[in-house]
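Example 3.2
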Amino acid sequence: MNKLPFQSHDGLKLSGLRSSATGIQPSKKLRNSIMSEVTSKRTVNPQAYSILATIYGNTGRPGLAAEYAKKGYELRDRVSESEKLLITNFYYAFAIGDLSKKIEVLKLITNSNPRDWSGPLDLAHTYRQIGQLEQSVTQAHEAIRRNPYFAPSHRALVLALFQLNHFAEAKDSIAQALQQKINHTDFHYVLYQIAFAEGDQAAMQEQIVWLRGKPDEYLGSDWQSGAAAFAGQWRKCEESAGRAIGLTARGDTIEIAARYATEQSIRGAIFGDYRRAKEDAAKGLELARGRASLPRALLWLWRCAAK
């Protein structure tokens, strides 16, 4: 695995953390090590803040992601020009959401180092965000060519193929990655969604079972909630959403719980259960008022007003 081009002054190695920044959910021990570094009173390399920003951004906590991206950007003059580009990329992504500027920076990163995989990988992710899915596929293939055994590169390809409705290609890409002992939670998300579209209940359950006992086990309940809502099964949707919220309504996943609750308020309004929808919106805003919950609460309010 490629290493970060920096190391903290006291010897805490931050090598390999770009894996966290581009799609792998880090272990609690690793995340705590970075947090300890950035909260100490010693001099902090600003890229440590940016790494935390991407960890939080990729795990559904946009408020924390923005906070740390800004901190890293404010300290960017401490590092080299190449490191400034990486920090600026994270700042555009998580702090201000300017994806056009982000793409400009990523092209500079990609062209300046033909062997570096992070530029094409992040371009694949960003192109998918703006709906340019064919370009996302192209960049994902390039990221895999530069680093064939890195799970987030395969993840980027799979997600782009899935959004293009190329289900067979997405499943083939997952199978090829798994044969190489490369795995990612989003492989199982895609397999779950494809199984739902194909009406394969057994395959759906396989993905839920795979998540059990993992740090992000709550995702399974969220997937089930969305599937139940789409199928018109409101009570089942409520039960699954309740589990997802309960599993995340504490610690540093509370922003995820707020998003789940406000998303559920929108579903409640669609199903005509306005009392429950109001309760879920209030609960989400009570948990965390921020980037994850406020837009969804406004959508709930608009939906109610439209009635």
